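Notebook entry, structure prediction.
Reason for the run: the old model in the group folder had no record of what sequence produced it. Starting over properly, with the input documented here first.
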Amino acid sequence: MPEQTKVTRFEQVVLPHLDSAYNLARWLMHNDQDAEDLVQEAYLRAFKFFDGFRGGNSRAWLLTIVRHTCYSRLQLNRAAEFSTVFDEELHSAGCETYNPERLLLQQIDQQQLRAALEDLPVVFREVVILRDLEGLTYKEIAVVAGIPLGTVMSRLARAHKRLQVDLAERMSKER
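New structure, fully documented this time:
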């Protein structure tokens, strides 16, 4: 395909998913600057191989590239992140949106949730991010992560259980 047509099509199909790409990279890398670098690298890879994209879910296709790019970097720099043994609703603002006490409690809750998510092993964290924050279906997550559908469901269940236990422990320590 001519270069200008490729650029235009790429911008229309892939560029709208920049926020999702950054979100996944940020959660996998634990670092804003690394996430920005890796999203840029992933977009370059996506553009390079865009001729091979045959339509379908461009968001899942891009997130797969982002995931592989992040994992490549993690394998180089953070081998310990992958050595984790694989073993066994958020609040709403309600009507008191501007109540300072409620806002402070929400901020604390968000900080605890963020800390609990960051403490999850990467294999659990990625399925939670893809499902709960990015809204991908189980099938789309299976494609992005390159794992069977049953593994997606079990990892998600285990991740939610770990989050529940971790958040309960954090709450009990505050009392």
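Summary: The radius of gyration is 18 Å.
The old model has been moved to the deprecated folder.
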